[in-house]
Please model this.
Amino acid sequence: MKSFVKSTLLTIIILISGYALAQAPTDCANAVIACGNSDINLDVNGSGIREFNDSCSSNENNSVWLQVTLISDGTLGFTLTPNSTNITEDYDFFVFGPNVDCSNVGNTIRCSTTNPQAAGLRSNLTGMNGSETDTTEGPGPNGNSFVKWLDVLAGETYFIVIDRPIGNSPFSLEWTGTATFSEPPSDESGTSGTPLNFKKCDDDTTTPPDGFSNFNIGDNTIPITGNQTNVTVTYHESASDANIGINALPNTYRNIRNPQTIYARITNDVTGCFELTEFQLDVVLGPDYIEPSDFILCDNLDDGNDKNGRVIFDLSSKNNEILGGQDPSNFNIFYYTSLSDAENRTGEIPNSYYNSTPNLEEVFIRIEEVSNTNCRSITSLNLIVNEAPDSFDYTLIQCDEDGLADGLTLFNLTEVNELLTGGFSDRSIKFYTDTEKNNEVNGNSFNNNINPQIIYVEVINNLTGCTSNSQLTLDVTATDSNNAFLTNCDDDGIEDGLHVFDLTDANTDIISGLPSGLNIVYYATFNDSVLEQNPLSTTYTNTTPYSQTIYARVENDNNCFGISQVFLYVFPLPDVKAEDLTYYCLNNFPDTITIDAAIRNDIPSNYTYNWSNGDTAYETTINAPGTYTVTITNRNNCSKTRTITVDPSNIASFETPAFNVTDATQNNTITVFVSGEGTYQYSLTDENNNTIKPYQDSNFFENVYPGIYNVLVRDIKNDCGTVNKPVSVIGFPKFFTPNNDGVNDTWQVLGVSSLFQPNSKIHIFDRFGKLLKQILPTEPGWDGYFNGQILPADDYWFSVKLQDGRVYKNHFSLIN
Model:
């Protein structure tokens, strides 16, 4: 079948009720015609009369007859799904045809009476499909609830009986296969845009209205039918009547409920297919309206008194709001002072209404249809009169401090807002130069153009928007006050030209010789002082380093008396190095050294000095370590103290022992031990004063060749001097060459001398142990001769017993 039949095309709802409905679709003659994607809703009960014989051994219990007419060849099947999945819910079906008459439907051509619970099935679905081969099954446990579907031809008609022997669940049908049904007619009112619902006022004079009225429901036939032909529209009070096509209503109908749903059956006169649609009948007790918002006005002087809570209201200005877009020509709207007057349509008040109750009065509104004045709605409207805010006249006096004695200057009008409003916080103010309020001016900054000048003030209540008027008189005075100077040294720990000033220190100078009772307020700029904005705290840190001018506004009872300049000076401290470190060589005592005040970027004669040792000159001499201070004062009497720390230094002193020597090894080392107040470096020179190891910070020398050296220790802390001391490193040459070339001509133990190990014993042997020579540490060494003859090149042995008790034995080579 076409795709649209894949959805649930037919829904049959069976409700077990306590009464039987006449002409219900429980018999063939009243069969429900299944067409296209129609939804059919029925209230049915019972089985009607027995009209058929079946091959599945069952009777009608609670049944529904369906009539299906095909418009194309193909296959016809369906799946029936109970709304309840309970396996005890049992549905059977029987199929008759094709083209049989209700008077003799004959035997079933398809049927299934299988009980799903008895058959042990997993679901309670039933129907016809293309996978089955049997055409009948049942009853009880026999079968699987599905039989083979039908091969059908266009124009054939079949009857299908759906029966529920057990249970009370409704069901749904999904058509399957390839054959198609006739399409039902449709409700065309949606495409025409014509609304189907009826809404009208109660059409009788009963009091109170009863909610019933006559409707021309037949007026919906043309919108529903549209351009369709061979279509009939009937109207019904229930969906069941509409489905079955019984109890049609007349075109003129009086509702029996309010609101009420009417069901329209749209039937194709040729195919019998039908569609249902519905619409509402609604009887209202009066015209629709929108509850009006409160009518709020401000008290004004139209009646000569803006404090009496009474004004003139234009009531008709509320009409459009009340109707909410409805055509005003269809309605009458009247206003009354009481509900009874509105109900009785007596005592109407004029649209231009002067409220009789001050501040708050309730009036009543009657909205009625022009065509039916009995169709009326009544509501009420609050008339509210908000108070006009208080406003007060004031005179503002300003100083003429702009350099021109012309009586013209700058005013900050907003500074007297509290005086103009009486101090209420929820007020705002506008200023104008004319009574018509055409020329609003900036109240924060206004230059008068005449002296005195009247400014017109509008005081506004910010909560209600109500206004009142007053006048502000601007007057420029010629009084004046004194300038003043405040100074500080830049001694707050940060030399940046900024300092904290107590501005009240200038008060005495500013008002010197002026009347008592004056107030002083300080400002950073002249404009701020004129406009009285951004006042400064009396504890103030200047923002321009070293020199800044601020302004003091002197007032007499909030009126300007004069504006003074206050000059703030922050004097710099002497430019010196605050702390310094130097050294004194203790070994030079009692020699003296000179320290000074270290003035920078200036000459010393511009300052005075006070040293901690009593000197008062730029320099002083000392010959002892310690801490020395000098206080330097400039011509602004600003002082700064310089501290000089003199640390001791000295030449080194060798300790006892002075050295730790590791010798007669592959890596000979020397460690030097000194003490003293200096910082020391160490160097090593040979007997000819040649530098072997240049000055180094470490007191440790390594890889030192055997021999006699001089260790030098110098002070680098304050260059206090150098000390030295000889040291010996013992070692034994591996060879000697007695060829008189001046190099290695003799063999001797290195590092011994008349100063170092002078009592050492040195013996030389040949390879056979024969003593060849005994030499002293003070001698040049063995020259290779024995008994006047030079010995041949060979290895020779030595034995050394040093004065410190160490003994060494080894060999060396004589090379010719």
